Amino acid sequence: MRTLLACATLAASMASTPAIARTTQDEQVWINVTVTGSAKDDLLYFVEAQPRLMEGLSELRQALLRGAIGWRLSDQVSVYQGYAYVVQPVEGPAPDRDEHRSLQQLSWTLVPGATELSSRTRLEQRWVDGFSDTGLRVRQMARLETPIAGGTKPLKALLSAEAMFALNDTDWGARGGFDQLRSFVGVEVPLKGKSTIEAGYLNQLVNRTGGETAVNHVASVSLFVRP
Question: What is the 3-class SS of the chain, one letter each residue?
């Protein structure tokens, strides 16, 4: 809970402090489809696809495919190794900016129950086609969910914050230090079986190179299929 409050406070202070550097804003839609489950006993997996509409919802500017295999260490702790492929279309004759990521992930349910607090720690190694450097980035997310309706499969309120930090500079533009903060508020709607839809508002604050800050207002819709 303290992690969530700290991230929310950081986001609020950044939003309320007059910016010296240039700030840009954009309206976006992110659609995510994730299939997740257990292959056998404690062997876990997830596969996800996420197209992102940007530039005032007018262009598909990014698409992400990510998958991972994991192992359940206990009822509350799981570890994963995965890979992500990110395509960012570039206008004109230049080739798309393709990014490849290897990732290691620790998922931890800190407070189980009807009201649940969980943590996700992810370390990424990032490569961009046409460049030689490897970028290292750590991502820390805290998530709180709690029922807001009765029943065996209640509607839930969701609150999460994810901070990202680059650990080094690269020849393709990454700069060591604070990278971005994603703050989300929304609801989780139960579907058939264990599947759910999560929908809500995501605020993405990005620290870009050249002293520019981007604030993206995102309508986020995620379908989680759990066979």
Answer: CHHHHHHHHHHHHHHHCCCCCCEEEEEEEEEEEEEEEEEECCEEEEEEEEEEEECCCCEEEEEEEEEEEEEECCCCEEEEEEEEEEEECCCCCCCCEEEEEEEEEEEEEEECCCCEEEEEEEEEEEEECCCCCCEEEEEEEEEEEEECCCCCCCCEEEEEEEEEEECCCCCCCCCCEEEEEEEEEEEEEECCCCCEEEEEEEEEEEECHHHCEEEEEEEEEEEEECC
pLDDT, tens digit (0-9, with 9 covering 90-100), for 193-225: 999 999 999 999 999 877 789 999 999 999 999
**What is the distance in angstroms between the CA of the first residue and the CA of the last residue of the chain?**
30
Structure-token match 């990110």, residue found: 86
Asked if residue 111 lies in contact with residue 141, where contact means CB atoms within 8 angstroms, the answer is no
Report the length, in residues, of the chain: 227
